[in-house]
Amino acid sequence: MIRPIIRDVLFLGQKSSPATRADIPVGDDLLDTLKANTDRCVGMAANMIGVHKNIIVIDTGLLKQVMYNPIITKRSGPYETQEGCLSLDGVRPATRYREITVRFQDREFKWHTVRYTGFPAQIIQHEIDHLNGIII
Known about the structure:
Blueprint lengths: L8 H4 L11 H13 L6 E3 L9 E5 L4 E21 L6 E15 L5 E7 H14 L5
Antiparallel strand pairs: 1-2, 2-3, 3-4, 4-5
């Protein structure tokens, strides 16, 4: 189900809690909402659709992937960039890392550890910031 985008910075500034199997429908809604906004969005966090759970979805151009309980375990190569956000107007400065390693659960709640570089790494960092209540 496509959900409305939350733009309330007080809501977005709150930390999310761990996702469980009961939250799989939230991941599905997040994916549907990303697909509906694909012309202006490459990633989303669950709080952007009104749910404070640790769930993100990213669009790498090759695939759209839902991650439950993502955690960045390694990062290297810091750089400064400008980012926009579907929940906010304009662009803002952000410090990101060129390479990250992320531990996350898939839809079956199996754990994976994957290394990301470049733009997919930047998307993931932005969305995990959302989960932690960090707004660019």
